[in-house]
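Feature request disguised as a bug: please show the residue count (262) next to Putative hydroxypyruvate isomerase in the output. Example input:
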Amino acid sequence: MRMKFCANLSFMFSEGSTILERYALAKDGGFKAVETGFPFGHTLEQVKAAKTSSGLEQVLINLRTGDLSKGELGVTAVPGKEDQFKADLHETIDYAKALGARKIHIMAGKLDLVTPKNWETYENNLKYAADVLKKDNIVGVIEPINQHSVPKYFLSDYNKAVDIIKRVNSPHLRLQLDIFHLQHICGDLSHNIKTLMPYVGHVQIAQVPHRNEPDTDGEINYKYILKHIESCGYTDWVGLEYKPAGGTKDGLGWVKDFGYTL
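Example output, currently without the count:
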């Protein structure tokens, strides 16, 4: 098996002003697949047309989250907003089905104060999501996000994420393992990747601390880590959720240098 990389259009190919333009740029950059945030401001038909025209595979899409400019990253853990969560989920499923995406990143939200009621609401909403996603054979993934990058994000604990996945007990709820966040939150990458892998539904990478290409200066030896991910049995797409230090295409030399192809 050889590692498969997909471009994260929310971070890469900023040379294009819109997500729609970035599909074509990713194709031109040599990619075969992409993942995206929710394409705010674009209709389902517009996004589907851009994706279809590019010929790329859509691997994952983020849940509709609310106003990103206001820091709204979902309401999955917010009591009293269950109906909004369900509406956001169903709208995202419509986009996922139109794009052929088999994974949806279910974002938890940002909270000033966390109570047991938030955890109860979060788990109940994830149970609902797993049941709904099962009907369309889509996998929901949840991602712990570090507090340095996104202060007050609700889910920033891998143990709690795995505990919820175990309790929901559905193949349609898995862990999104972003190595960038894993290093920030708890480090000990070799051990934690191996331990978490049985629950993983998607992997993403970026260098720490500046979130640039894997071969830029930073804390992580990605030549080793990518081989380790493979040795732990992961065979699916790896999302490149990094901010290019310069031009996106110019920064892709690491793929060949590490012994891979797009």
